[in-house]
Design brief:
The protein is mainly α. The strands form 2 sheets. It has a two-stranded antiparallel ribbon. Strands 3-4 form a two-stranded antiparallel ribbon.
Length: 252
């Protein structure tokens, strides 16, 4: 049977949306880098400084915009990148990029919500002279075991999503291999550097992540055309040499 070029209804729109949506990733990375510029004082050793820090308008704005809104932007970007990978011949990588990326974003946003809304209230309580109750709340509410577990799981899922996506990008000939590696490595560095919560490593990781994802978005701005074979199976369009982006197009 001859192969005919065909696209399912809405496929062109979804393809363009996915390519544009990948640009959410460098925006997310830039927001992550910005959110780590100001170092938060240690609540155990400097509770007064910590309280003054978390009660500033800048602290609330950073968490609402750079962290919580950033997590939503990151989730959209991972969905878009997953769609691009699926359309470039790696549906499994695309699916798991979406799943792990979205779940990680939801878990991290829930933990960041505690920081955005609970920590300023605790800080004001401490500055008002209720130091004993504030210290207890800092320990149990703002740094409780279940909250820390949620943060840890979200961090592991963020690393997993970036590694899956990075491997998928590296294995796609039409996308830059080293950008995929850079994305995976930068997310791992960002999550691991959060444990000491000091130093420039998270900002450096965010900058590397932004550069890697810009490279991916630029390289992916032109979609790989999709063919539908006589049996209805989608395949990549063949180039003039008879090869698509990921190898020979299958003909039935």
């Amino acid at each position: 049977m001859t192969t005919q070029q065909s696209m399912s209804p809405g496929d062109g729109l979804l393809g363009r949306a996915a390519r544009l949506g990948v640009w959410a990733l460098p925006v997310w990375a830039a927001l992550l880098a910005v959110s780590t510029i100001n170092e938060q004082p240690n609540w155990r050793t400097h509770p007064g400084d910590w309280s003054r820090f978390v009660t500033t308008p800048e602290f609330l704005a950073s968490h609402l915009v750079a962290s919580i809104l950033g997590a939503a932007i990151g989730a959209l970007g991972m969905v878009a990148l997953g769609a691009v990978l699926a359309r470039r011949g790696h549906p499994a990588f695309g699916l798991w990029t979406m799943v792990t990326g979205v779940v990680a974003a939801v878990l991290s946003a829930s933990a960041l919500g505690v920081a955005a809304f609970a920590q300023p209230a605790i800080g004001r309580n401490y500055l008002a002279g209720h130091t004993a109750s504030a210290r207890l709340l800092i320990k149990t509410a703002a740094n409780g075991g279940w909250l820390n577990a949620t943060i840890g799981i979200s961090g592991l899922l963020l690393i997993a999503s970036a590694v899956v996506a990075g491997v998928g990008v590296a294995r796609t000939p039409s996308l830059p291999r080293f950008a995929g590696i850079g994305f995976a490595a930068s997310m791992a560095l960002f999550a691991v550097a959060q444990v000491p919560d000091k130093g420039p490593w998270q900002a450096i990781a965010g900058a590397l992540m932004a550069a890697s994802t810009v490279w991916i978005a630029v390289a992916g701005r032109h979609d790989a055309p999709t063919l539908v074979a006589g049996g209805g199976d989608p395949v990549l369009a063949a180039s003039p040499a008879g090869l698509g982006h990921d190898g020979p197009a299958r003909v039935r």
